[in-house]
Each structure stands twice: as C-alpha cells, then as structure tokens.
Specification:
Elements (H helix, E strand, L loop, with lengths): L8 E2 H11 L6 E5 L12 E2 L9 E2 L3 E4 L13 E2 L4 E3 L11 E4 L3 E4 L2 E4 L9 E2 L10 E3 L7 H9 L4 E5 L2 E6 L4 E2 L10 E2 L2 H11 L3 E4 L7 H14 L2 E5 L10 H8 L1 E5 L1 E4 L5 E5 L2 E6 L3 H18 L9 E6 L10 E11 L2 E6 L8 H5 L2 E5 L11 E6 L6
Parallel strand pairs: 1-20, 14-17, 14-18, 15-16, 18-22, 20-24, 23-25
Antiparallel strand pairs: 2-13, 3-12, 4-11, 5-7, 5-8, 6-10, 9-10, 19-21, 21-22, 23-27, 24-25, 24-26, 26-27
Helix pairs in contact: 1-6, 3-6, 4-5
C-alpha cells in the first residue's frame, strides 16, 4: 500500500478544485409536505387546485346584487330584494356580485335594507384569487420554509419531491470507544462523526454514521467500499496523517485517487481529498477541532455548491482584544469570544490547538485569516462569523 506524502496545497485552490471536480449528485426523494421544512425542492411544485374554488364571502353579511345598493346611505337605506345571508368563507350563490357587511344592514327578516352602497366584487374573494390550478407554488431549488408548508397543504399538496444528498461518516482508530462507554487507559470516546453529522444535517444532508473501524487496512478498505456504494460523499475520521497506523490515504489511493493530502490550513492540515468511483472522499484529522474545521471549511462548501446550505452565520465587525499571529502561507481559523465593549464589540482570541473541544464550546465566533494576510495586532478591526450568541 502506497502512502501519499503530506504536501500542503493552498486552501483556496483545494476549495475550487473540489467544486469543479465533483458535480451535484442527481438524487431526489419524496417526503411528506408537513415535514419538509429545510428541504430543497427538486422541481417546480404546481397547484392541483384553484383556491378559492369559487367566489367566497370576505365578510359576514348578505350577498346582494350590487346595483340594488346604489344611493344607499344612513338616511336613505336601500331595500334589498332577495339578499342571501353569508358568513366569511361561504360560497357566493350564482347571480350575486357583492357582500354588504352585517353592520351596514338594517331592518328585519323579509325586509332587509343597506345603509351603504357596495361595488361589484366588494367583500368577495374571487375564485382563484390565491392560486389557480396549474400555477406554480414553489420553484425548483427553493428551500422550503414553514410558511411554504401551509401553502402546500392548503393547495392540496401532501408530498413533495426534494433534493437529497447522502453522506457517510466512518470513524477509525483502535483507541476509539462508542459514546456511553467509559474509556479505559489510552481509549477515547468517538465524537467526531457525531459533530460532523450535526453540521452536515443542518445543511440538509442525510447522514449515516457507521461503526468504529479498527486500525486495519483491510477492514478500512471494506468500510470505505461500502460507504462509497451507499453515499454521495464519504467522510473518514482519523488516519489522515502520516503515522504508522494512518491508513486512510493509502486505502483511498488503492480504491481511487488521492487528489490532495495536506492542506495549508490550520487547524486541519493533514486533511485528505480523494475520489473513488467519481465520488468525493474527505479524510478528517483525528483531533476534534481540526476535524470540525475541515467539515465546516471543506465539506459544507461542497454541499453548498450542490445546493445544500445551512442558515448562514451572522457576520460581525469587532476589534481584536489580543494579537493573532499567523503563518505566511497558511489559512488560519481562530476561535474567539466576542463581547460588547462600549458601542463596539471586542473579540478575545482563545488558545489555539486542534485537540481540546472546550475551545469551541467557549467560543461564540471564529476568524478566518487568509494566507498572506500577516499578523493582526490587538486593536485591529476584523469581520468574524458568529457560532453562538453575542456574550453580554
């Protein structure tokens, strides 16, 4: 099995390569409309109904022939020859073309009069006012909102075709144990694939977490082969570096192509981008913060290029409360704690490292420093992306 060398490719170039190399999978599924919030329509959705199906009353009152009300007023009520009592939403009988509101009616049964002139169509919702049969409700590529669900159901749509992308997540490492089990000496609870599934699920992906694969190239080969068959994108957690038990790049190379092994980004530099049977495979570093960064900065942009996007994070202008030191050829992603400081916001850089997950827990923002941007001294104003609520 050949091992690929860690030659760090520029981060921006890797992103562009991924977008151009992997076209959007042509996968769709049909889901209940009532549970379709956040899903993306696979094709235009047209109404099978005309709504309302006939003219309906917009107010409680009497359906009338509008010409009978001409000249009506408080001192000169107009006698209605054959008014028809209607409530809001009732169908307007044939021959009637307006509704007089109940508060404008005087008299008694058999001799109703109106104190107000109404025009043809007044206080009536005409047939098809909301939508007509065959009219488009939603276009293709539309992210379904809760308000869209009300329209779909009201117009007779109970199921809708949506785009689907399947993502497989394989955790690797003989030291891993599943969540819920107390780790022994040298063991670690597996969490990277759970975090990745949560991040990708927010973008609308259907994620499958597979069982832990021990450090055995044949077991990993079998797991990756299955993951490629069953998914559109495969993420393999850990085994992406160049140690004696890091088999991910070698297995990807045996089954397909290793396009990138090593990216000029921090954290996340050992990441792998491969291709097997035309499908993308991303090898995640084992350290949690590095793995999360690679998912956020590589996997999510690929899904976005395919039309699957989570709600974009809020961008905020802040002043750095501490210096940020960066390398000249590396894109760096720095966690921050953002707090109000007078009329501005101050951002304190948190200790940097790929391992500790509490850094991400304590942070409520992060800063992307592109390669070549140089060091950022305290007091520099920068734009950050929020990962939580503003503190304070």
């Amino acid at each position: 099995m050949m091992r690929s060398a860690l030659v760090r490719k520029p981060f921006a170039r890797v992103l562009e390569m991924m977008r151009s190399t992997f076209p959007r999978p042509d996968r769709t599924t049909r889901v209940p409309a009532a549970g379709a919030a956040g899903r993306i329509t696979a094709k235009p959705v047209h109404s099978p109904l005309t709504v309302p199906a006939t003219n309906i009353a917009a107010r409680d009152g009497f359906a009338v022939v509008s010409s009978e009300t001409l000249g009506a007023g408080d001192r000169n009520p107009a006698l209605l020859r054959n008014p028809c009592r209607v409530n809001t939403g009732n169908a307007i009988p044939p021959g009637y073309d307006a509704v007089v509101m109940i508060e404008d009616i005087v008299g008694e049964e058999g001799r109703w009069s109106t104190q107000k002139t109404v025009l043809p169509g007044e206080h009536i919702h005409p047939a098809g006012e909301e939508i007509r049969e065959g009219e488009m409700i939603l276009p293709a590529g539309h992210t379904i909102r809760p308000c869209d669900i009300g329209a779909l159901l009201s117009y007779g749509i109970t199921e809708v075709d949506v785009r689907e992308v399947k993502v497989g997540l394989i955790p690797t490492g003989s030291e891993l144990v599943p969540a819920g089990r107390t780790p022994g000496p040298g063991e670690v609870i597996e969490s990277n694939t759970a975090v990745a599934a949560a991040l990708l699920g927010e973008a609308g992906a259907s994620c499958t977490r597979y069982g832990i694969v021990r450090d055995d190239p044949e077991l990993l080969r079998e797991a990756i082969g299955r993951g490629i068959r069953e998914n559109d994108l495969l993420l393999v957690s850990a085994g992406s570096s160049a140690g004696t038990r890091d088999f991910t790049a070698g297995v990807i190379g045996d089954l397909g192509d290793v396009l990138v092994h090593g990216i000029a980004m921090k954290p996340g530099k050992p990441a792998i981008v491969g291709r097997i049977k035309g499908k993308p495979v991303i090898g995640l570093p084992g350290y949690p913060i590095a793995a999360q960064t690679v998912v956020r900065e590589l996997a999510l942009p690929l899904l976005a290029a395919w039309g699957f996007r989570p709600r974009p994070p809020e961008r905020l202008r802040v002043r750095l409360a501490g210096a940020v030191m960066t390398g000249p050829e590396t894109d760096e992603f720095v966690f921050l704690t953002v707090m109000p400081a007078g009329e501005q916001y101050a951002a304190t850089p948190l200790p940097r490292g790929a391992g500790t997950q509490m850094t991400a827990v304590r942070a409520n923002a992060y800063l992307h420093v592109p390669a070549g941007a140089g060091n950022l001294p305290a007091g520099t104003e920068v734009d950050v992306l929020l990962t939580g609520n503003r503190t304070g």
